[in-house]
Amino acid sequence: LPRICNHCVNPGCVAACPAGAIYKRGEDGIVLVSQEKCRAWRMCISGCPYKKVYFNWSTGKSEKCILCFPRLESGQAPACFHSCVGRIRYLGVLLYDADRIEDAARAGDKDLVTAQRAMIQDPFDPQVIEAAKANGISDEMIDAAQNSPVYKFVMRWQLALPLHPEFRTLPMLFYVPPMLPVIASIKQGNYDIAGLNDAGLAPMLSSLQRARMPLRYMASLFAAGNEAQVEAVYRKLIAVRVYMRSHKVGDVPEAEVQEALSQGKTTPEEAEAIFRLTSLPTYEERFVVPPLAREGAIEQTQDPFTHKQEAGFGFRQAPERRW
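Below the sequence we write its predicted structure tokens.
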């Protein structure tokens, strides 16, 4: 898995820092380490269950992924998202109810994923829009939340799951469990698919019962051991695979396609939408970066023009360790 910070809603590193150097930005939820306040306690390293914080022994400061916030503030995607060869990373806005954070963190292991989804709000709900505007969220941010690919994966399709939710930090990076390739071999020049003659095409494509990656292991990664949550995700992914094969190749009986869609609790329209966003997305569909208006957050404590003159080049003196 990528060593990128999860930018949790309930970050363990923020709670562990004795100097109060780590904070979560209110305008975009990015967790950052203040290089001026950090006093090298290194509690953040042990406090982060994902081990995403590192200690720089040359400067005596803790460092971590900053989600490339200078790029986000200028409307660009983070570097690791932009350079991903597989184009499997998506960036978008999620609106959540801060009053439900404690309830979501206190939920039982089997209910953690459901509780975290309940914390995330529907950006199309008029009441949510009204409450968001009352709390200072701009119309552009709400529009970005409505077009967010992350909202589709997490809430609408419920395909993406948080990494190790049992830590109860409520991570805001979500993962779609991987699909294994179809088992096949070449015999006498023929492409032979394992189990094709025995169980039909759709069960072979599913391979859920005979998966080489145990379902229990995937559940321990993404659902705190709740196998039903992960199985529901795989059923929907299998339905998309079977439906698209029948649509493109045409060698799957219609009865098996309908059975796969029924087991995955999805529709042909939803399967087509999932395929489009996972296989054929444009740059604008993968990365929906709202105008963050950083100057609005700065002007609460300092004149933005003064800040622009004073900041931007980092520290003007080289950091020195006091040996």
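Residues 177-285 form a domain with the nitrate reductase domain fold fold (CATH 1.10.3650.10).
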